[in-house]
Write the structure tokens for this entry.
Amino acid sequence: MQLIKRGDSGPAAAEVRATLVSLGLLAEGRHAAPEDPQSVLFDAACDLALREFQQSRGLSVDGIVGPETWRSLVASRWRLGDRLLHRSVSDPVVGDDVHTLQERLLEMGYDVGRADGIFGERTEQALRSFQRECGLVTDGTFGPSTMRALRQLGRKVVGGRPQLLRESAMLYHAGPALIGKRIVIDPGHGSADPGWVVPDEHGQVWNESQLTFDLASRLEGRFSAIGVRADLTRGPDTDATPRERAAFANALGADVLISIHLDGHANPDARGLASYHYGTGSGTTSTIGERLASLAQREIVARTGMLDCRTHAKTWELLRLTRMPAIQIEVGYLTSPDDRALITDPSFRDTVAEAILIAVQRVFLPVDNDVKTGTLDVTALRAMQLS
Ligand SMILES: [Zn+2]
């Protein structure tokens, strides 16, 4: 090829210039008059921008467009999603889109080797693994459906925990309606382990395990009323380990697990509502779990006025071993006189059950169709199920 350098005009110089502009390395205008190609000069500013480009790409910085710089300029124009990406042995696909894909796969823990912008064998294998985790066709080709899955995951899923990918992909395939979903409700504690046991000022003794079972049953009833199957991890007089509860939900192929607990503290002033989702606190988090926890938290606070102790990431066994988005809600402190007055009131438990139901509905709604916290009621919900 003919070298392109400072002082050149014509279509090749115009293309170099346009590429540098599109990369944001060069300001538009001045010489860029498309109706007059002769006016497009490889000027001093263009020369400077090209050197910057060469430096950023590890090319020799000479301000001259030779074959290598030309290939890099062409490759730099591809954005992920512009074209299909696949492995070709005879003519490897090269470009910034491949580089972006490789970086995304690396972020999620798939081994592509070095992100070199070349669609090679390891990139193909990593892409196939990703597709398998997302329930896509594992053809090793990056096309629209893989692009959608990647976009759907956003940038939050990092750290290579394939289960988190499965969660998001599941939700993506599940669609917005609750009909056909399997919900598992987990009343905390049980017969052998009653959880917090606190007498009130009238001498009546309240068990966390009984109150969580009552609340779980109210929630189950609300799901049934709108035609959604909900199962409880334990009966009123039985018990189960976190591992058994997780295995139960996994075996059912549940879409969501909601665990209900009450908190307690030696200090009677400790009170408030908190929700928990899976996460290590160092970036790895269940995206959907986090969203569900935050929606449940907000809906309950909006409807009850409880003190908002916010949402938190935890690696508790139940959250870690479940294969679906799972949250644990601590509906107040049984040891707090204020919270206890609320939680021992059946109408309060109805309100909380309704708030959780709305939160689950909202997590399945596309973000665009989401509603304001505290505005959706059960009548509206039923209408949404029917439409
Ligand atoms: Zn508990």
Observations:
- The longest helix spans residues 346-364.
